[in-house]
Structures are given as structure tokens and as C-alpha cells.
């Protein structure tokens, strides 16, 4: 991903975690392909038919669940 983000904090003030989660709603379909000779699975295009929509309005610490800051659908911080 080539986009730079400017989040207001670099880690969770409660636990020190550095990864946040955003709740998403996912709609659509996916396909993966299986080679009948080798059983090898190609899932390179599995997510192409899916639509992702952020339904969570907050970035939430993955480790402790604390709300960190409010965001929009494009991960821009809302003040």
C-alpha cells in the first residue's frame, strides 16, 4: 500500500499495542481454483469479487479492545 497515514497516536495508551482493528462488512463472492492433477490451490483472485465496507467508526486496539480514535471509511482520522 503506497498511502501514508497520519494517526494521532503510535501505540495504545492502555496496553502499548501497535495494531488496531476496524470492523468491516464484507459482501460478494469469491472463487479459488484447484489443479486436479496436483491438488494445488490458487487463491490469487479469491477476494476480487468482494466489497469491503468499514462499519466500525473507531480504530480499536487489537490487544485490549480500547477505542483509540474515530475514523472514516478510508482510515482518515475524524477529530
Task: Give a quick summary of the entry.
The chain is 0% helix and 30% strand. It is mostly beta strands.
Question: Can you give keywords for this protein?
Answer:
elongated, 7 strands, three-stranded antiparallel sheet, mainly beta, 79 residues
Oligomer: single chain
Annotation field: number of helices? 0
Low-confidence stretches: none
Strands of the largest sheet, in order across it?
1-6-7
Rg calc:
17 Å
Query: Topology as H/E string?
Result: EEEEEEE
Helix/sheet category: mainly beta
Q: Secondary-structure blueprint of this entry?
A:
Elements: E1 20-21, E2 24-28, E3 33-34, E4 41-42, E5 50-54, E6 58-61, E7 67-70
Antiparallel strand pairs: 1-6, 2-5, 3-4, 6-7
Description of the molecule:
- Strand 6 and strand 7 form a beta hairpin.
- The strands form 3 sheets. The protein has a 3-stranded antiparallel β-sheet with strand order 1-6-7, with no helix packed on it. A two-stranded antiparallel sheet has the order 2-5.
- It has no helices and 7 strands.
- By secondary structure, it is mostly beta strands.
Amino acid at each position: 500500500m503506497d498511502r501514508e497515514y497520519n494517526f494521532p497516536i503510535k501505540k495504545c495508551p492502555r496496553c502499548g499495542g501497535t495494531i488496531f482493528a476496524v470492523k468491516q462488512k464484507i459482501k460478494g463472492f469469491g472463487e479459488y481454483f484447484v489443479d486436479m492433477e496436483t491438488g494445488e490451490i490458487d487463491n490469487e483472485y479469491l477476494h476480487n469479487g468482494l466489497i469491503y465496507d468499514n462499519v466500525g467508526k473507531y480504530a480499536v486496539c487489537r490487544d485490549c479492545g480500547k477505542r483509540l480514535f474515530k475514523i472514516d471509511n478510508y482510515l482518515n482520522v475524524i477529530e
